[in-house]
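FAQ: What does the model actually see?

It sees only this:
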Amino acid sequence: MTVLAASWQDRDGAKTALLSAYMAAPIRHVFADQGFTGRLVDWTRDILRTTLEIVRKPTDQRGFAVHPRRWVVERTLAWLTACRRLARDYERHPEVSEAIIRWAAIAGMTRRITRGRPARRHARRTFTWT
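And it is asked to produce this:
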């Protein structure tokens, strides 16, 4: 995981993020959106020996549609922002942001592990006004 300043383009920071993730655990397949097309795909294949698959929306799509691979990222970000400290970016140093993101991810994983069963949706509540 890599946190960079907001002035950096995602495409420019991707090499740093991919390299640090690869050093932690050798990953073999990465999904990315259309903003990462180009030389990054070749760099990932040649240097990291990893497949960088660009997830594209269907050409006939109109309006919003859920894409399975992109939904994984959106869902993960939603889980992380459930941590109150990550709801806003108050940190001055990227290292602190990285630590808080790790803490939130670990807390979410341990909560799911200790639950012992799959998550369930709560029943919808209906209120009657009398």
